[in-house]
Each structure stands twice: as C-alpha cells, then as structure tokens.
Specification:
The protein contains 15 helices and seven strands. The chain is of the alpha/beta class and about 325 residues long. It folds into three domains: about 1-125, 3-Layer(aba) Sandwich (Rossmann fold); about 135-190, Helicase, Ruva Protein, domain 3 (Orthogonal Bundle), CATH 1.10.8.60; about 200-320, Zinc Finger, Delta Prime, domain 3. The strands form two sheets. It has a five-stranded parallel sheet with strand order 2-3-4-1-5, with helices on both faces. It has a two-stranded parallel ribbon with strand order 6-7. The longest helix has 23 residues, at about 230-255. The protein is globular and about 55 Å long. It starts with a strand and ends with a helix.
Amino acid sequence: MIIFLYGPDSFRARRFLKEMKEKFIREVDANENSLDILDGQNVDLKLITEKINTGSLFAQKRMLIIENLFNNKKVSIFKELTSYLPKLENRDDLIIIFKDGELAEKNLNTESKKLFSFLKKQKFSQEFKNLTPAGLNNFIKKEAESYNKKISQEVANKLMQQTNGDLWTVAQNIKKAALSSDKELIDLNTISLYLTDKFTENIFALTDAISNKNRALAVKILEEQYAAGISEEYLIVMLARQFKILLRIKEALVAQSSPDKIASTLKLHPFVVKKGLSQIKNFSMTQLKDYFNKIIEFDKKNKSGQGNTKTELLLLIANI
C-alpha cells in the first residue's frame, strides 16, 4: 500500500499522519520495530529498500514514512522510485507513506513530475488544501467537541478572524480554553483569555532576540513559552514558519521589491512584512537558511523520539 499526503494545510496532514502512525503502533507493532521514518531530502533508493526489507519477525506489516521527498536535490531518486514503486502497490504487508508540503506540479522537474503524477493517482492519495470559511467553521466546532465542549458561533467567528485561519493557532487556543474551565460551553470570555496575538508577538520577539544575539532574552522568552504550556510541536512549527517567512522576505528584498509589493507577492500581512524587514537586517541569507534547517532537523528528531527539543533549542540559542 502506498499513501501520499501533501498540500498547504500542514496541521491536518500532520494530524492525519500521526493518527495513522499511532494506529499502526497500537494494532500492529507496539515496539515500533517495523516502523521507520526517513528524511526524504537526503534519502536514496538503497536506504529505502533496506528499510523495506528489514522488519520484525513479530509484526505482520511494516510501515515506512518518508517526509519531504520532493525537496531532495538528487534527480535520480525520482526516476528510480517511479520505476520501483509500482512493484509495491499491491503488497498487503507494507505501508509506505510519503508526506510532503504544498507542491506545484509546474515547478517540478521532469522526473519529479512523473513521480508526483504516480503518487497522486494512488488510491490513498490525499491533498490537504486550506479550509474554506465553512470548512474552518466546522473544524472549530469539531475541535471543541473533541474536548467534550461546545462553542458558540460568536466565538467561532472571533477565532477565525483573529487567527487568520491558521489551524495550529486555532487548535492551540481551543485546547487551552477547553482545559481551563469545567463549563461545557467555551464562551467569549474564556476564549478571550487565550485568543491574543501574544504568542505571535513572542515568536517575533524570540527571532528578534536571536538576530540581536541576545541569548539571555531568547532563553527567557523560550522558557516563558514552555511555562505557558505551549506544545513543542506547535512551537517548532511556528519557529520554522517564521524563519521561512524571513527567508522569503530576504529573497524578495534582494530582488529590490518594495514592502507593499513583497506583502502582495508573498500574500503576507503588511505588519508581518514590516517586522520581517526589521529582523532580516541582522541575518545573512546563509544564517537564515542555517537556522531554518536546524529547526526542521529538531522537528524530525522530535517526531521520531530521537531528540530533546528544548535542549536543542537552548543549544541553538547558546551558539548564536
């Protein structure tokens, strides 16, 4: 079985992948001896075949998760997989999950386009598009229900308006509001305690502290986020997104675009662009890429249970 998950909605794609992984561990392989997660950016066919052919004698199936394959710089991997994967389509003892972000077919090279076309045609291929307003409204109500709570339309509207539809922020705020009160209904007063721009501001503040090499302040802000109960997954996603935004702004600035044009082209709020332009003055392009790649690496370790995210972030700050 081959599964392909991709699209701009990283929250729902990540949650879906997590649910599939947990189901496999629960029903097939509690010790995770037949489960592997590979970094698609650096993977080759030899490693993939090795993982496929290595498994536990006590598990009936094997699961292999390959993330961000389409960021791989080796063109040969796409050609090789296009030839190799059809042999695995009907295997009941094997689950291969390819998880990527937003992919534009027109931006792919010839070989990666062929693989994308093959994966997209799979029975269990799923594109996670950004939710429509109606879809987002439904998501908010279901998210509240997952905590045995109800949420008024007024609160749902406020969530949609103030989070700009970002599901990571929506889910985080609903979670904090739901766990803070015994009331069945999440009302406007309860959500207002958590629904602020403070976390976004603190992400700006954290990247500001890093760019200014203010280690003490950066550590203080990071500790505050942990003390506030922010999940590591959410923290990593927001940091990675912030550095990705800074990279895009830096690239646009190199092209001599005006702030208004950058905001329009990148589809970012003018305030975000304004803050970004201030921050990138203290970063070289190489430094931005380095920080972004390190945070992505922390994310991979966190998902595979191989690292200590807080320690990794503290070390990153210590070395600025």
